Amino acid sequence: MKKGVIHLMLIGLAYLCYFLQANFFSWFTIAGIAPNIFIIFILFVGLFGSKTMGAVYGIVMGAILDVLFGSKIGIYAGTLGLIGFLATIFDRNFSKDSRMTMMLMVMGSTILLEVIVYLLNYAIQGINIEILPFIKILGLEVIFNLLLTIILYPLMQRFGYYIENQCKGNQILTRYF
Amino acid sequence: MYRNHKTGILGIIITIIVLIIIVIFTNGEKNSSFFENVASKLVMPVQNGLTYLKNKVSGNHTFFTDINNLQNENKELKEKNSQLEQSLRELENIKSENETLKEYLNLTEKYGEYKTMPAYIIGKDISNYSKTIIINVGKKDGIKENMTVIADQGLVGHVVSVTDSTAKVQTIIDTASSVSSMMSTTKDSIVCKGTLEGTSELKAMYIPTDANIIQGDSIETSGLGGIYPKGIHIGTVKKVESTKNIVDRYAIVEASVDFNKLNTVLVVTNQ
Prior knowledge:
Number of domains of chain A: 1
Shape of chain A: globular
Number of strands of chain B: 12
Structural class of chain B: alpha+beta
Radius of gyration of chain A: 16 Å
Largest sheet of chain A: none
Shape of chain B: extended
Number of domains of chain B: 3
Order of helices and strands of chain B: HHHHEEEEEEEEEEEE
Oligomer: heterodimer
Structural class of chain A: mainly alpha
CATH class of chain A: Mainly Alpha
Strand content of chain A: under 5%
Number of strands of chain A: 0
Distance between the termini of chain A: 30 Å
Strand order of the largest sheet of chain B: 1-2-5-4-3-12
Helix content of chain A: over 70%
CATH superfamily of the largest domain in chain B: Rod shape-determining protein MreC, domain 2
Largest interface: A-B, 38 and 35 residues
């Protein structure tokens, strides 16, 4: 029952992320560059949810984004799924109690996702590789995501541990090492 | 981790302030009026106080002569002001509606040879790396893939996918877009590709070695490639970049359509 409520809350949160990304962050930008809050969301689910939750949420959310915006099905589904999967690995190896660790995870995930998406678009759609403009956009996007992580970290931690207690129960390990 | 709760909250507040300041500064002129408002709100109370003191000291007693009359007058003026504001809002609505209708009319007159379907832009791509838009017409309105989308100023892009009631349009400034084009004056063929830089720039490539391309040249579609009809205005040459090898030279084309302000488009349904 409680797990069902958690999933409902996460779906609501996913919708909120979509709403913010499509509306609020279309004008609240740093030099015209928006953050990618889907990465933060999927990383959050993967870190605090059960083993498969991150990957499943990543694939489903990515598939919806692919249908809505991507011109090729599967790019976002694959990459966000990968971020969800990586988050479960991060969970096993790093502490979530450190804001700095969380920021490094967000930074790494943002760079990884955007580079993979860019290379896939290059391979599939034949776009021109523009290294300097890409680095500039990616740099601003990473800074924006990091600032948002600093702001949202206390909320993520509080809600995250609630999810973790419900989903993992006595399997929680990282908090005690 | 922060050492205590208060420091943590302070850190978050400082981060939010920093983020807002960065957003305001990096978005340039757009927010100058907001800045002016904030500055004026900070400065005006002090300035008003100082002016009041100055008036009092210099013996300006007229302010106190008939305070009751002034209060009544002020009340009446406020009422009148709110009535005027309401009328102004109504007029603004009518004006905006009128402008949209005019825009449609201009578009239809300009591209009279094509059968077109007007549409509103209802969504823009969430990614920083691609520039597709979603319009409010779809299969049930007769929209199909690869149909050309235009605006009053020129070419917007083409339809890449369609649902029953919406269509996704790849704009010409998208990095995956390339448009077969030609220079209006010399008729030399070039290819205009979207770039990551800016929201209104295209890169004109494969310029013939004997072509004389100069700043201000007008660029239009060539009709080759099977998607875009011939003769639709794309933009003007902003800068010509020469390279060691003349084959590699390229030009920056300023798109005629302002994609930041684009709200209404026309889909060409018979080409």
